[in-house]
Here is the input.
Amino acid sequence: MSKFLEDNQGNQSSIRLMSFISLFAAIGSGYITLTNAPQDGVMITFAFLLGAFAPKALQKYVEK
Here is the structure.
């Protein structure tokens, strides 16, 4: 698991860890939304998914 959280130079990447946690939070909140069907759950799940994928994509453009 620690290799997954390292960047190309072998340094620990906190952005990868935060994205990984946000992805699991999106999966969990998505499951709760599907089983209980609250309207606000869709926005919360979308926010977690955005938090999982947007920072890493943004980081690639900023580092160029």
